[in-house]
């Protein structure tokens, strides 16, 4: 049983589902809580979808990599992409206390990830976005 996996996708919405499936099959090898599984699923779906919609500004093919690692008590997800620089830790927090019709669209998925993660860090290095998320596995 490997405690690490690397999943790569191109900038096509169709590839997100296969990344989700592969990550869930891999996580199934471990005794991981449903909360941790939901976190990984949300992270992959939200980050990949946002990257495809907003981060791939030109038409050339882009690459996103999800490196998942399981330790005795943690899941570590490192997401690397070559899209436009974007630090989700600097994203404005949506005003959830306003009525829906008065709010700006977007931002709720990133907000949810920020609240669910035990730790998040971001860096932009060598033209790459690198986001690392950590979550207790139990």
3D architecture notes:
A five-stranded antiparallel beta sheet has the order 1-2-3-5-4, covered by helices on one side. It is an alpha+beta fold. It has helices at 14-27, 34-55, 108-116, and strands at residues 4-10, 63-70, 74-81, 119-125, 128-136. It is built from three helices and five strands, in the order βααββαββ. The model has no long low-confidence stretch (mean pLDDT 88). α1 (14-27) packs antiparallel against α2 (34-55). The protein has a single domain (4-136), classed as 2-Layer Sandwich (Heat Shock Protein 90), CATH 3.30.565.
Q: How many distinct helices?
A: 3
The biggest beta sheet reads:
5 strands, antiparallel
Helix amount: 25-40%
Number of domains: 1
Query: How much is the average pLDDT?
Result: 88
Strand-and-helix sequence, N→C? EHHEEHEE
The computed structural class is: alpha+beta
- Indicate the proportion of strand residues: 25-35%
Instruction: List the uncertain runs.
Output: none
What would the CATH topology be? Heat Shock Protein 90
User: Outline, from the CA principal axes?
Assistant: globular
* CATH homologous superfamily (4th level) name: Histidine kinase-like ATPase, C-terminal domain
Rg computed from alpha carbons, rounded to a whole number of angstroms? 15 Å
Number of strands: 5
Spatial arrangement of strands, main beta sheet: 1-2-3-5-4
**Given this structure, which CATH class is correct?**
Alpha Beta
CATH architecture: 2-Layer Sandwich
- The N- to C-terminal Cα distance equals 18 Å
């Amino acid at each position: 049983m490997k405690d690490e996996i690397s999943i790569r996708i191109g900038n096509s919405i169709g590839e997100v589902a296969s990344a989700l499936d592969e990550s869930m099959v891999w996580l199934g090898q471990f005794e991981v809580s449903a909360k941790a599984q939901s976190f990984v699923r949300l992270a992959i779906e939200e980050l990949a979808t946002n990257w495809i919609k907003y981060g791939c500004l030109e038409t050339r093919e882009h690459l996103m990599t999800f490196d998942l690692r399981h330790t005795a008590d943690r899941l570590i997800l490192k997401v690397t992409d070559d899209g436009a620089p974007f630090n989700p830790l600097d994203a404005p927090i949506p005003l959830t206390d306003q009525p829906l019709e008065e709010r700006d669209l977007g931002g709720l998925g990133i907000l949810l990830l920020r609240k669910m993660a035990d730790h998040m860090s971001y860096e932009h290095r060598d033209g790459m976005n690198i986001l690392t998320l950590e979550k207790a596995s139990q």
